């Protein structure tokens, strides 16, 4: 297979990659011009026909989501861009924003034109100071150049982009938590229906899309549907509900791997190829024990499952929650899965927003059980209890409002099921883990 | 008509009725446990106590069930909806949610005010498991006495249902309560220095399903299972909130609102909730007093009543036009009727006067806007008219007197010597007569005061008859909107005080027991505007007397000015 030529990341190593001049020298904003020459419906159809699925985690078809907006709405309609990027292991949005902000702004402008929105809010996690500065400069350049503001390129289309820095909480990335937070409230996810497309930000129809999704929109507009569909994995004909996994994808590779980083590759690369061919394998001559396929919410692949395709359908086939954010975290064989799982559980207990009883209480209970296990006081019955608690929380059993609880449940379910013997041995040995983080627990 | 199936049983939902599963199941007599849902608040579906299985009956009769559990509070029913609450799946979810809720809930029941009326206790018995599988210590959170002047928070008893938060946001509009922190560290709190002291604040204690928010006034006063309730009506203003008086051994401990969509809805205000303490005041009149010789002498009822009756009859015989009876807007309809009828039976020329109707400020409308402004569509109103039965007494006066003579006009007549003898009923705990007015009245040939608290008037009156406070009486109050509601005696009055209807019954020379339903029938038959009272029993939510001939919202002729107004 010929080496894949990066598209979304094509410009990141250019000198001055963030400036408008350099972006335009590379043909920047021509895709927007092209879109403005089409009707909004045509732009929406282009995105729909490209098969683009959201890159934020859920993989929802982007064009289809746009069509859920009410027809002939008097407005305003909002586009909220999700740049909260908080799923552990995920850092591709950051690279896009820091290194090529105009690609994002162009995608936002095209998307807003398609959905007839004149205002887009970009919700940025607070920690991303450099992203903020790059975006801010880029937005200002666009206003000065008539690419944002009134009557863009003389088309009659107006657009404002508002940058908003969140106060940093994982739950602000959940789309309705994000909307609440943008409204100045506590980021407690909303119950659905109504879905944001019907009643979202400030009770107006709202589309929430991820940063990487916006970069894809720009490239689809620029290169066409055929180009996008030539990359990735077509739908499985045996599965009528599979929408396929087209296009390039930014994989975030981290953990026990020689060359961590963001890799732009065609959808559907296997975990093994990513780790071995691109990541340079596991350091210190160790072996892979487990791999997080798409952020810790998605669970774990075992070493035997490394040939799983990292497309939207692949991880689910081996019991993971999904592709998630394509944040691949490699865990080597010198690492205890009890420790890994405790770390995951601690994260979710800390990040649960606290409104749903099963998530609020269940996440912390699982953390406590794992902590006890790491103190040498676990019992085999704890493993069944972990399975029971993790099986009872989340939107999948129907007991919570948002997917955070599913994300908290999945690593527990996968780890206890796939690595049960390791857990059993750990418990029976009565050993204790070093616990560098114990002093932090509970110190909220 | 829509039909919904609940655990295999069909129930009919009326046209245009928009119900969720909890409400539809209740129609079938099936309880779906719930915490966060409250019919007067927005739906958040966060506690997950109400999970049910839900499905649809297809036209061919088959039932398609949804694979996931759904929150019954968030899920509307429609024709053909199928709700299952008794499956293993649902029972497992209920037990699961309760186990989660109890993980960090302290074992406080023995010292918790809510014990006995606590939904965590009740549901745990009905739907929970008997022991906790959590081995770790429970989280402890500091109690918050600073939440409000009347409210305290036992922080770790909270189940995070956010009813209280939504109440201050959506009903009072004052938004004092909020959630701070995340996950199971989340707590209810107020902003520093901004306690929850709005006039509806006490309701958060009622809507809190557990013993987290407690009333400082009631704290540790009683175990709730000792309390006996009597249905009554708050006399604090003309809204006439339906309430329950909770007492034990003739001592009132608290008032609770009773839901009545026709009256106030589900809530009551703090003026009413905490404003009843005067009924236990030292200044309560306990013995009839006679001052015919100048010095006050306490006297037994059987000697006082004939003397008062004789004095009234003598005054009316001498000059009926110079005798007036003052009917208080704190009287029940029955009391007003008894007094008016008695006086007019002695002479049609004897005059009936409306006592002072206290009006304080303006109607206070909720929810408040961002800057305290009144809402266009109020959800709760504390009325400026601070008495329970102005309308009812006015209707009696109009019937017997033909007009409503204000207290101010009557006082003017006293000044001009056109009134020589006065029988005045008080009842307003804020006072109904100024010292100057009292001094003026003291100069009359006859001045009888029937009241509950010592006042400038009772200091001067020829006869003082100790009446009863509203919690000690039976009868009818008619609110601003023409809703006639029954009040029931909850406690006995202090000392020798007597129910006003009993006093007036005896003065009028009526024989036998005071039986309120019988009196209502008599009133209903005699006064057309009060014909609705002929039903006798008014039920728990009252009966509307509104007819086209009654302008129920008017304040009546010559707005009276009272001492407290
Ligand atoms: C707990 C939780 C956290 C999330 N965090 C993010 C995030 O940080 N960034 C993001 O784009 N999507 C996040 N999502 C997914 C969003 O809810 C939403 O699906 C996404 O932003 C839609 O964008 P897309 O259609 O372009 O993928 C999160 C979801 C959940 C349940
Ligand atoms: S599932 Fe967890 S994070 Fe999501 S709304 Fe419920 S409590 Fe909050
Ligand atoms: S204090 Fe009571 S009403 Fe408020 S959230 Fe807690 S349990 Fe609910
Ligand atoms: S609104 Fe009026 S009737 Fe209701 S509780 Fe308050 S004072 Fe009493
Ligand atoms: S009552 Fe339905 S989720 Fe709380």
* CATH fold-level topology of the largest domain in chain B: Rossmann fold
CATH homology superfamily of the largest domain in chain A: NADH-ubiquinone oxidoreductase 51kDa subunit
Biggest chain pair contact, residues each? A-B, 33 and 35 residues
**Assembly state (oligomeric):** heterodimer
Secondary-structure blueprint of this entry?
The complex is a heterodimer of chains A (444) and B (565).
Chain A: H1 20-25, H2 30-36, H3 40-50, H4 62-67, E1 78-83, H5 92-99, H6 101-115, E2 119-124, H7 129-144, E3 160-165, H8 175-182, E4 206-210, H9 211-223, H10 225-229, E5 232-233, E6 245-246, E7 248-255, E8 261-266, H11 271-278, E9 288-292, E10 301-302, H12 314-317, E11 327-332, H13 337-351, H14 357-374, H15 380-392, H16 404-418, H17 420-429
Parallel strand pairs in A: 1-2, 1-4, 2-3, 7-11
Antiparallel strand pairs in A: 5-6, 7-8, 9-10, 9-11
Chain B: E1 2-6, E2 9-13, H1 21-27, E3 51-57, E4 63-65, E5 70-71, E6 81-84, H2 88-103, H3 119-127, E7 151-153, H4 163-170, E8 177-180, E9 187-190, H5 203-207, E10 213-215, E11 228-233, E12 242-248, E13 251-257, H6 270-274, E14 289-290, E15 297-298, H7 301-319, E16 323-327, H8 333-346, E17 351-354, E18 364-366, E19 380-382, H9 390-401, H10 407-415, E20 421-425, H11 435-442, E21 446-451, H12 456-460, E22 463-466, E23 475-478, E24 483-487, H13 500-507, H14 516-526, E25 543-544
Parallel strand pairs in B: 1-6, 16-17, 16-20, 20-21, 21-22
Antiparallel strand pairs in B: 1-2, 3-4, 3-5, 3-6, 7-10, 8-9, 11-12, 12-13, 14-15, 14-22, 18-19, 23-24, 24-25
Helix pairs in contact in B: 2-3, 8-9, 8-13
The complex binds flavin mononucleotide (FMN), iron/sulfur cluster (3 copies) and FE2/S2 (inorganic) cluster.
FE2/S2 (inorganic) cluster is lined by residues 34-37, 45-50, 71-73 of chain B.
